[in-house]
Sequence to fold (178 residues):
Amino acid sequence: MWPSTRTVPEVGCTSPMIMPMVVVLPAPLPPSSAVTLLRATLKELKRQGKTLVYTTHYMEEAERLCDRIIIIDHGKVIANDTLAAVRRLVPSVNVIEIGVENPGRDGWLSGLRVLEGVSAAEWDGSTLRVTVRDLLESSPRVLVWLRERDYACTYLTSQRADLETVFLTLTGRSVRNA
Fold:
């Protein structure tokens, strides 16, 4: 006879739960409130020693979330280390960002890219990003090059290499052009 508070017996069932050693995540992570829960879950899995594999073209997110960075170029691993160590693969890389009001026509960056000390030059429609090894030595060259060609510059900033810049320097092309 079952107690009067229950009409059916409790049925218990157990089965082994598989706890993966590796979790593969999609990119990018969803931009919603679910992300907070997902990040908390990932943090707990990481605390438990699980390996989280996150494949992405979103370099800012990889910088923020990953302990180790692996850069693969045409199927070949060209970097596999911590973010700090991957940054050191491209020593002293700096990015000069210049607002240019009157950009040139097709191919206008090719002359800039061959300047001594310039590793790369990219144009996004409003900002010129020039990657240089030595900020003090190369910045004047870049600015003189622009002035001699009558480009109107509205601002100038510099920053240390982010993961996107490291990728560009190591592979020779932007993630979008890969």
User: Anything to note?
Assistant: DSSP finds six helices and eight strands in the chain.
